[in-house]
């Protein structure tokens, strides 16, 4: 359908009203800002119920942050009309009957184009009024796009553990980022975060959310993953959200360029991939290194049975646990040797995942002096001698002492 710019816009508002009235509304997106320097780049609008009354929930996407505002329907329609008249040229209204695309130029060539509906069912309208977390309303679009929550913002049952993990991760990362002095803006320089071995990128999206929405920083977030299919899927989600400051690349932890990285993350990277990530982060001078190790295989075959642990380490299970503990303990010592303050944190309760230890390292503002290095080196050597650990993937970080 075509018409002049006013009628196309008016018709879109009329379709919006109808879709809210007959409950066929799925989502409205306002895009293509009229001004090149507009603060709000895009607005994503959802239909929710607040205290039993329908509202439109607006997520305003700015370069550095997302903010959310809920309005009752009448005010909300006026708000959409005003924003389209003054701020945005384009809009897409998704309903279960059809998708409507507003293409408006500066002159009188506005058009409203009908497309086949991309959504067969309308989302539930219940507004989740659970206690606020750092994820909050602004996280709903990406959590929904990743399929982690339903359209009412409730965690999907099968993915509830992942949701809990993301929630806790953002909370922990927020504290660590503050400890590392990364909460304050650094001129116009974006905060560079790299998540290696990122898999589907759920926690990369969480780091992106943390940087731009929780810390309010300009960010440049990269997920690095060895599987091309996962890279493509995650990039498709990021593009659908208009997240130009988040990208996924096919690459290897060992070789991916890390110039200027400030936060290096490696979660559940198997076996020595965690060590490679730590080494790369330290060598790149990252201010914050965060790993959640898994599958500790390197130290287990080397682990001796020193007295008085020998009678206990006869048990395979205890030897296994001790190897994990020794590996992660050694990692913290090597990080301290290289001038980082370390923390071992229970990431989420073991009821949610057995892989629940997180090691976090914040680079000290001054490099360790010779005496400090000698002390940490002696601690590492004694620890390794006690357990009979002759080699470890972090050894390159100890060379040249
Ligand atoms: C267990 S998954 C963890 C995914 C994600 N970090 C999380 O915690 O949900 C480990 C991921 O690391 C990837 N990976 C393993 N070795 C890698 C390497 N050397 N370079 C890049 N990615 C790697 C695997 O393909 C896999 O997707």
If you average the pLDDT, what whole number results?
89
The largest beta-sheet arranges its strands as 4-3-2-1-5-6-7
Classified by CATH, the class of the largest domain is Alpha Beta
What is the C-alpha radius of gyration, as a whole number of Å? 25 Å
Q: Helix proportion of residues, in percent?
A: 25-40%
Bound molecules: S-adenosylmethionine
Quaternary state, please?
single chain
Enumerate how many helices there are, as a single number: 10
Helix/sheet category: alpha/beta
The CATH architecture term of the largest domain is 3-Layer(aba) Sandwich
Question: Which key features would you list for this structure?
Answer:
401 residues, alpha/beta, Rossmann fold, 2 domains, seven-stranded antiparallel beta sheet, seven-stranded mixed beta sheet, 26% strand, binds S-adenosylmethionine
Walkthrough of the structure:
This protein has helices at residues 5-21, 73-86, 140-145, 160-179, 202-214, 228-240, 273-283, 310-313, 316-337, 370-387, and strands at 25-33, 40-50, 53-62, 66-72, 88-95, 98-103, 111-116, 191-196, 219-225, 246-250, 263-270, 288-294, 340-346, 357-363. It has 401 residues and is of the alpha/beta class. The chain has 2 domains: 5-127, no CATH class; 157-398, Vaccinia Virus protein VP39 (Rossmann fold), CATH 3.40.50. Strands 4-3-2-1-5-6-7 form a 7-stranded antiparallel sheet, covered by helices on one side. Strands 10-9-8-11-12-14-13 form a 7-stranded mixed sheet, with helices on both faces. A hairpin with a 7-residue loop joins strand 6 (98-103) and strand 7 (111-116). Helix 9 runs antiparallel to helix 10 (370-387). The longest helix is centred in the last third of the chain and has 22 residues, at 316-337. The chain is elongated and about 80 Å long. The model has no long low-confidence stretch (mean pLDDT 89). Bound molecules: S-adenosylmethionine.
């Amino acid at each position: 359908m075509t018409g002049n710019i006013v009628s196309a816009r008016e018709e879109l508002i009329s379709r919006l009203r109808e879709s809210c009235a007959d409950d066929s509304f799925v989502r409205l997106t306002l895009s293509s800002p009229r001004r090149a320097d507009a603060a709000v780049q895009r607005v994503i609008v959802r239909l929710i119920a607040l205290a039993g009354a329908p509202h439109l929930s607006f997520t305003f996407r700015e370069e550095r942050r997302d903010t959310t505002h809920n309005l009752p329907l009448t005010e909300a329609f006026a708000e959409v009309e005003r924003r389209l008249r003054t701020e945005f040229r384009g809009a897409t209204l998704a309903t279960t009957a059809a998708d409507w695309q507003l293409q408006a130029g500066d002159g009188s060539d506005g058009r409203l184009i009908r497309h086949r509906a991309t959504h067969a069912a309308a989302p539930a309208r219940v507004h989740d009024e659970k206690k606020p977390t750092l994820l909050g309303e602004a996280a709903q679009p990406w959590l929904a796009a990743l399929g982690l929550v339903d359209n009412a913002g409730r965690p999907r049952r099968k993915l509830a553990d992942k949701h809990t993990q993301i929630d806790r991760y953002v909370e922990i990362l927020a504290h660590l980022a503050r400890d590392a002095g990364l909460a304050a803006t650094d001129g116009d320089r974006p905060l560079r975060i790299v998540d290696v071995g990122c898999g589907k990128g759920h926690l990369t999206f969480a780091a992106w959310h943390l940087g731009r929405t929780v810390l309010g920083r300009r960010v440049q977030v990269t997920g690095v993953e060895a599987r091309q299919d996962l890279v493509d899927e995650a990039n498709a989600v990021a593009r659908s959200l208009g997240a130009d400051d988040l990208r996924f690349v096919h690459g290897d932890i060992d070789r991916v360029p890390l110039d200027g990285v400030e936060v290096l993350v490696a979660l559940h990277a198997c076996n020595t991939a965690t060590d490679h990530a730590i080494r790369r982060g330290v060598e790149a001078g990252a201010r914050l290194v965060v790993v959640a190790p898994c599958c500790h295989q390197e130290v287990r075959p080397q682990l001796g049975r020193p007295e008085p642990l020998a009678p206990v380490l006869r048990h395979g299970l205890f030897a296994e646990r001790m190897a994990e503990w020794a590996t992660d303990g050694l990692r913290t010592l090597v990080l301290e040797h290289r001038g980082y303050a370390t923390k071992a944190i229970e990431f989420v309760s073991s009821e949610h995942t057995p892989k629940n230890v997180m090691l976090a390292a914040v680079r000290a503002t001054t490099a360790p002096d010779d005496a400090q290095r000698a002390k940490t080196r002696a601690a590492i050597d004694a620890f390794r001698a006690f357990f009979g650990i002759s080699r470890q993937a972090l050894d390159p970080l100890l060379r040249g002492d």
